[in-house]
Amino acid sequence: MSSTKKQARIAGFLYLLLAVAAPLRLGIIPAKLFVHENAAATADNIAAHETLFRLGIAADLFCGTILIFLVLALYRLFKGVSQKHAVLMVIVGGVLPAAIDFFNVLNDAAALILVRGADFLSVFDKPQRDALAMLFLRLHHQEIVGAEILWGLWLFPLAVLVIRSGFLPRFLGYWLIVNGAAYLALSFTGLFLPQYEEMLSNITFPALFGEMAFMLWLVIAGAKEQAQEI
């Protein structure tokens, strides 16, 4: 196996780990535990499924860690194509989103403390604690909305690297551009027109498969040949 193909497979495997872990906190836990506009029911669900909620916290920490290793693996793969774009990809796609993952865990930890009703929180009655827990869950979501800007932006330098590489199909790069634009649209909609966020998410869902296609190509096919420096 060539060095380039091996590096591609390593990056693809790390990407796969990220794709497996990320949906737990982003999709599964909100769908199972959170009740829209009902703080009491949401708090009761978290209390009844505390282990699942804690797994979501662990998933955020895991994703933040894996993300760093992923962008470093991609850097090794693409640095011969364009070091400038590869460095930009690492900063925008790895360092900053990973920091958000780690800091965002604090919101879930605060919500869990409120739901558990620690002794020092006895000055608050249960409805107040439930409302505060919901506030921290909303803050978690708002940080995700902000992070989507980075999720979109890092795909543009990555797309340039894929298109220029010569060892990966160009269509993957163009799909990543569409994927990045979709994330930016979702983020700005969540910030300025949150009432349309879910509708736009359903519309842009096919575009978000660009990352999945890129990941699967790395895992299954790897890369053809070593990139040429430009």
Task: Provide key terms for this protein.
single chain; 230 residues; mainly alpha; 9 helices; elongated
Structure in words:
The protein is mainly α. The chain has a domain at 3-145 and 212-220. It is 81% helix and 0% strand. It has helices spanning 3-33, 39-48, 50-78, 83-116, 126-153, 155-165, 170-192, 197-204, 209-220. Helix 7 (170-192) runs antiparallel to helix 8 (197-204). The longest helix has 34 residues, at 83-116. It starts with a helix and ends in a 10-residue tail after the last helix. The mean pLDDT is 94.
Oligomer: single chain
Give the distance, in angstroms, between the N- and C-terminal Cα atoms. 24 Å
SSE string: HHHHHHHHH
Please summarize the sheet with the most strands: none
Low-confidence stretches: none
- Rounded to an integer in angstroms, the radius of gyration calculated over CA atoms is 20 Å
Strand and helix map with partners:
Elements: H1 3-33, H2 39-48, H3 50-78, H4 83-116, H5 126-153, H6 155-165, H7 170-192, H8 197-204, H9 209-220
State the gist of this model:
The chain has 230 residues and is mostly helical. The chain is 81% helix and 0% strand. Helix 6 runs antiparallel to helix 7 (170-192).
